[in-house]
């Protein structure tokens, strides 16, 4: 990382000093006011735009299907299934596979963190706005316990039987939370909204998710 930024700095310095590194023989490509300035500036802007597009593409790639498939409630349901698949992998580990458990717990932490950001920053506020604060607050309160489980699991010895028992408690609590969202709150709310309103929630939610990608 430091090598990369170091070499970038060096090549930037070379460019600023002209092609062969000497200010006296070549005008710098960064000499504002030269006849080429407009073209260079336009090229820089175009380059920045390509860079931004590539970065956005990378984020979508990192997110997998999360930002592209279906409306907000379908995306959240798919993320629930993805989180449960991580639980499956964790539950298949034995007590001596501590590094696998640490790695999978970090994956779960990331997936649930991104998911919570999308729900807490967009979907639950939209529910409150639609006079469904009771459901939004109950679900939001449960997210607090999700964070508490993660907090404890990160600190507990990964090779103890208590660790995997705590994982199972966590999963059953989370499955109940997901059932409430998937079977009751989300479909009911989605059906009260127009296609346009649902589209706006989907777009806002995807933007929140990209913040963490
Ligand atoms: Fe939730
Ligand atoms: Fe959820």
Question: What is shown here, in short?
Answer:
With 213 residues, the protein is mainly α.
Describe, in plain words, how this protein is organized in 3D.
It is a single chain. With 213 residues, the chain is mainly alpha-helical. The chain folds into 3 domains: 1-31; 36-64; 69-211, nmb1532 protein domain like (Four Helix Bundle (Hemerythrin (Met), subunit A)). It has helices at 2-16, 37-63, 72-91, 98-129, 133-155, 161-192, 195-211. Helix 4 (98-129) packs antiparallel against helix 5 (133-155). The longest helix is centred in the middle third of the chain and has 32 residues, at 98-129. The relative contact order is 0.11. Residues 1-67 have low confidence and may be disordered. It binds fe (ii) ion (FE2) (2 copies). One fe (ii) ion (FE2) is lined by residues 119, 139, 143, 177, 181.
Name the quaternary structure. Answer: single chain
- Helix-strand string: HHHHHHH
Number of strands: 0
**Count of distinct structural domains:** 3
Draw up the topology in text.
Elements (H helix, E strand, L loop, with lengths): L1 H15 L20 H27 L8 H20 L6 H32 L3 H23 L5 H32 L2 H17 L2
Helix pairs in contact: 3-4, 3-6, 4-5, 4-7, 5-6
Write a concise keyword list for the protein shown above.
binds fe (ii) ion, disordered N terminus, mainly alpha, Four Helix Bundle (Hemerythrin (Met), subunit A), 213 residues
